[in-house]
Amino acid sequence: MANILIVDDSSTMRKIISRSLRQAGLPIDDILEAGDGIEGINVLQTSGKTINLILSDINMPNMDGLEFVKAVRANGYSMPIVMITTEGGEDVIAEAMASGAKDSIKKPFTPEQLGEKLGGLL
Description:
This protein is α/β, with parallel strands linked by helices and 122 residues long. It has five helices and five strands; from the N terminus they run βαβαβαβαβα. It has helices at residues 11-23, 37-46, 65-74, 90-99, 111-118; strands at 2-7, 28-34, 53-56, 81-85, 103-106. Strand 1 (2-7), helix 1 (11-23) and strand 2 form a beta-alpha-beta unit. Helix 1 packs across helix 5 (111-118), helix 2 packs parallel to helix 3 and helix 3 runs parallel beside helix 4. The longest helix is centred in the first third of the chain and has 13 residues, at 11-23. The protein is globular and about 30 Å long. The chain starts with a strand and ends with a helix. The mean pLDDT is 95.
C-alpha cells in the first residue's frame, strides 16, 4: 500500500485529487497534504512515513512546483513526482521533467486518467 503526498495551494483541489485517487482504485494507504513546496518538504522530513509518490501543482506561493521538485531531488528523495497542472506550457512541463519529475497530468482529470497514469508508479 502506498503513501501519497499531494502538494497544492488549493485545499479544494487537494480534496478533489484525494477523492479521485481513491475512486481510481489505486493501492493507497495514506494521503498526506501540503499547501506549498515548503510545507511539502516539511512533510517529507517530519511525517515519519515513506512517501511512495508525490503529486504536485506547479503554480503555488512561497515555493512553486518547479522549485519543489528541485528541492526534493536535492534532499536525496527518489520517489516519482507527477505534476498536476493547468499549465498548457510545454516548456514548464519540460523544465519540471528535466528537474526530476516523472510525468504530468493536466487539470481537469478523471479518476480513470489518474489510475492509468499512476498505476504503474505505485
